[in-house]
Design brief:
- The chain is α+β, with helices and mostly antiparallel strands.
- It has a five-stranded antiparallel β-sheet with strand order 2-1-5-4-3, with helices on one face.
- The longest helix has 15 residues, at about 30-45.
- The N and C termini lie close together (about 5 Å).
- Helices cover about 20% and strands about 55% of the residues.
- It has one helix at about 30-45, and strands at about 1-15, 20-25, 50-55, 55-60, 70-75.
- It has one helix and five strands; from the N terminus they run ββαβββ.
Length: about 80
Amino acid sequence: MRKIWCMKNSILDREETTYKHMYDVFFTSKKKAIAEAKDIIKYLDCDTSEVRDTDGSVTITPTSSMSRYIWISSRELN
């Protein structure tokens, strides 16, 4: 079995005050997924990122706003 990392990128819908799922991206390492998420926030939101790593999943959000929510989790491939 191989482990892959799935990054789910969601953006805040200010009218409905909920997060709307945008897309998934798959990575072969957790380190690469975190680096990509940090770059997304750096370039698209012009902000630094706050990384929280708990129990095998990682959440990444912009430091000064909640405009984007990125969740990284692992999956097993058969």
